[in-house]
Prior knowledge:
Elements: H1 2-23, H2 49-82, H3 102-107, H4 119-126, E1 136-142, H5 155-170, E2 177-181, H6 187-200, E3 206-212, E4 215-217, E5 223-225, E6 241-242, H7 243-251, E7 257-263, E8 269-270, E9 273-274, E10 295-299, E11 309-310, E12 315-316, H8 317-327, H9 333-349, E13 360-362
Helix pairs in contact: 4-8, 5-8, 8-9
Amino acid sequence: MYLFRNFLVLFLFSTLISISTVYGADRPEVASPKLTTVEKPIRMKKESESAFYERVQALHERRIQELYPIQKKFRLDVEARNRHLPSNQKLQSPSLIDPFDPLFLAYKDRKPSKHSNDALEKMLKEKQQKLSDKKSWLFIIAIEDYKYADPVLFASRTSDIVRATFQKKLDISDRNIVVLRNEEATLKNINDEIRKLSRRVQRNDVIYFYYCGHGLSNKRGEQLILPYDGMPDFADTKNTIKIERLYNRFLNSRALRTFSFVDTSFSGVTDGITLLKGLQNPLMRPRAEGYHKRLNILNSTRSHDTANAYYAKGYRLFSYYLGLEVLSKPQNAGELFDNIRTKIREVSASYGEGRVQEPEFFGYRELTIRK
């Protein structure tokens, strides 16, 4: 009897070890297929900016069509692996990212000229800076290079010019500015810094929040921002941030008001590229968020639009015109929004019918940025 009991215990233990190996965290990941490389598109002599973009866009669309069946098979293989795993062990993203996308290869290394005549950069150079305002706070999250998702073209350098724009416009002290960029913008760091900021803000202070990166929506249509270490396919788990919860943090602080500028698309499409690979119709359906009387929100897109880069300038499209309007003559939020919307629609329409972008505004049109 004693030997039989020991044998039974040993059998059950070995069975559990086998199951954990097959279905547990140690189970080997599905091998990612090797993708063919693409030669970086180079702008030819006498080729106009628009002609170069059209050529690159054609290469980009052809690449997407060629990769779709490969991405679909990879997704099905990963989902089969994950089917019997608990949610906290689904560690492999089923979205196969293409590091050789022609659109990113053509533009990712674009740098501003030292002798640039760009209007926004000229206005920044002319603007004097005092850094004397201690009642305004600037919180920036910008993610260009993600761990499990496509890059967001120009996000890093766009965040630099947004910081300079708001700091010079409002004379914000350096100690009142928080910037989380790329690998700094993890889920934990974002939550930690928001908690710290909400404790430091004093009565009648104003918070200016800016986000540039991927947006998405979960099955309930809740609007989410994707941190550096978040996986788009597991948006219902604790690896994304509900934008509503983030706003509630600001509203529960002692701040008089929060201005939010969000350069993303909550439909999960950036530069015409969807976050979820290998799906036929992966467009997400975000539901509209309400707003509070102490909160003004300017989103870069409507619920079904894509968020675009401004390829000719080397910045994100929405953020570029936001910077121009913020530095322009004093105007209320409604006028600022109207001017931005007109310009963004015009530029994005030149990218093609499916790339039209139009911002959204929630709040009080009569409010102005403090200075």
